[in-house]
Design a protein that fits this description.
Order of helices and strands: HHHHHHHHH
Helix content: over 70%
Strand content: under 5%
Shape: elongated
Radius of gyration: 20 Å
Amino acid sequence: MITYWVNYHERLTIALYQHLKLVFLSLSIALLLAVILIAIFSTRTQWLNTLIYFFSVLYSVPSYAFFALLIPMTGLGTTTAVVVLSLYSEYILLRTFTTGIQQIDPMIVEAAIGMGMTDYQIFKKVQLPLAFKSIFGGIRLALTSIIGIATIASTINAGGLGTVLFDGLRTQSLVKILWGALLTIFLCLISVFFFSCIEKIVTKKLGLEEIK
């Protein structure tokens, strides 16, 4: 394995960078969309549940089939991969965000309404901080999920660590398979650690240490 790294470290590094770019671009898009949807429908439970059900249906579609369905519209490559990964992430994010918000004591929300807060103010100043831990938990869950799914994106020319894995399967090279798997695990662990650090920093700055 060391010899393979010495001879092909550039290829492995490029694949790792492509995978990282693919995952974080998809997660960023999904996170932005989730925040917007939650902000709009946080007080409209029925609409929000309908959205979650819609994305859960998309999440149940196998990744190969999802890629195949979108290729005629978005073509081969990164665009299709980002769309699919973003939609997969969306279900996880919406589900965990909604769960966190719904667990907030209704009396707190009623008190905020009694103070004359608008729906947006309630979401920003009350619900979002109190659901903070669930939000970051959802981000980490979505992240680990799509890191694995993103390996399949190499089958539609989107690059990433899947190129190493599938090349290893095609050539029956155990070394390539191991490097692809190990780098995927490494990326997952580093990404989760990175978001855990961000969570601790934001928690401290917002004074949310005591919120359970």
